[in-house]
Amino acid sequence: MDAADAGAPAHRPQALLLNFLGALVLDADLPPLPSSTLLDLLADLGVGEAAARATLQRMVARDLLNRGQVGRTAEYTLTARMETVLRRADARVSSPDPFAHPDGGWTLLSYSVPETRRDLRHRVRTRLTWAGFGGVRDGLWLAPGTVDVADVLGPLGEAAGLADAFTAQPMPGTDVTALVHRAWDVPAVRAAHEWFAATWSRPPRVAGSSAQLTLLGADWLHLLQVDPGLPAEHLGPDWPAQASTALYRRTFDALAPAARATLERSLRATGRVA
């Protein structure tokens, strides 16, 4: 393993499947996927069979996959909830400029979760981080652009009533650059971009176009989680966000046709596609 591989994010099996299903299955008018197709994909990505089967079981239990049975073969389709999850993610994953915020403003959010609800606090923080928020101080969060906080926290039910949010513009004299560097680890964000560029500018680290496309999507989603679209004017010279976006689009477009063909061959071999 070289230095670039050593810096690779650790992707959970469910995250890998979400990327595969979003890239190749959502809205593709495919028949149900036999378990062998999903197990083989995860095996190509280094996931053992026991862990892969447990992941499929959990996704069924969480209403992300429907499970059917044809003879001795299990097969899977997307649930309505899964389609919603994938489309919501795709809005940013497939954006031509996912790191930009046209309105140029900010969203300021304050929340308070009782100390006795650490589980809820963790889930709130996780969803805020994915939505692009960085912590300014305890309970006070900032995100670039206008964020639909009700959409972010709504799935958590009771959490929606624990937060107050405002659209905001900095007043004269506010050191926005210092604020950005306080709320986000800017060197770490740059390093994530540089890792993505170094990794996907060379031959992929797994074999097979479907596995490569899945891993590309997982790495890209990780980068989108790390960088919510911080305004480049506060980040130093040669901020790499646009270069990362161009590399992702170029690599995705190169891998996708072969990955789709591979999936169709796999389904044809099982009799799912004529």
Automatic annotation (TrEMBL):
InterPro entries membership: PaaX-like_central, PaaX-like_N, PaaX_C, PaaX_trns_reg, WH-like_DNA-bd_sf
Domain Transcriptional repressor PaaX-like C-terminal: 211-264
Domain Transcriptional repressor PaaX-like N-terminal: 28-81
Domain of life of the source: Bacteria
Domain Transcriptional repressor PaaX-like central Cas2-like, chain residue ranges per copy: 102-170
Protein name: PaaX family transcriptional regulator C-terminal domain-containing protein
Organism: Klenkia sesuvii
